[in-house]
Specification:
The protein is 26% helix and 37% strand. The protein has 95 residues and is of the alpha+beta class. The longest helix has 14 residues.
Length: 95
């Protein structure tokens, strides 16, 4: 799947954080229709960040999440995505 713009996620992000980036989404599925990867591309103030989630096998559970500009992946399964998103918001606000 190629990136597609996600205006609903843009509105949700704006409602949650007071920021309105352009958001694009893409994902890959396994043969059994579980998620393999989930990727969001954020463009804000002439900068781009990629938040990429890898799923563990065919479980639909997060293995890890990476974020542009952060060396170490986020690995805590229950909060990896939200931790990465919070870090992204911090990076957007700090330029």
């Amino acid at each position: 799947m190629e990136f597609k713009r996600d205006v609903v996620r843009e509105d949700l992000f704006n409602s949650s954080y007071g920021l309105k980036p352009t958001v694009h989404i893409k994902y890959e599925m396994n043969d059994d229709s579980t998620f393999k990867t989930f990727t969001l591309k954020f463009n804000y103030n002439d900068k781009e960040w990629i938040l990429h989630e890898e799923y563990k096998d065919n479980t639909n559970l997060t293995d890890y999440v990476t974020l542009t500009g952060v060396e170490e992946p986020f690995r805590n399964q229950k909060g990896a995505f939200s931790d990465a998103e919070k870090k992204l918001v911090e990076m957007m606000k700090n330029g």
